[in-house]
E2 NEDD8-conjugating enzyme (Amblyomma triste), 207 residues
Amino acid sequence: RRRPRTHCLVSASLFCAADPASLAMIKLFSLKQQQKDGEAMGNKPTSQKRASAAQLRITKDINELNLPKTCQMEFPDPDDLLNFKLVICPDEGFYRNGRFVFSFRVSPNYPHEPPKVKCDTMVYHPNIDLDGNVCLNILREDWKPVLTVNSIVYGLQYLFLEPNPEDPLNKDAAEVLQSNRRLFEQNVKKAMLGGYVGATYFERCLK
């Protein structure tokens, strides 16, 4: 009988306390069983191998995570490591005391292509547009298979510490940051408190 789904919250301390070898072996056993079941149902082994490689690699990435204190990960389905959330709560800079949620979707081709990452929290930011698309170079042309989830976490955290107006998705926010940092700071606070910045309404996202 399949056990009921639970909401799983994972922090850096939990990963440090867990035995990475045990976690990897448990997941490996599960993946091998899935492969056997797939072969028994006549699935092509090539596609199964590709999916298994992505799951094995993401398991390794998660076991080796070294999250900063301002970040935590959530797994809505603990059995699905290919879809998870990252919560960033900056403790300095323009976005201090905010709470920003990102969704990660890992493809079967991982790590040969980067995860798809979107910001679920509407934020006034030059590098994140109002639809949640994120402008981070390692999620695009600078991605390499040697990079990990940890690399992306630190990249996203850095966007909140040092927003980059030179490579914007939200051009209005970028122009304000370049021309009037004081006004940019006020706009960020308005958005985080919940309210209008210009004609755009932002929901409250303070901790």
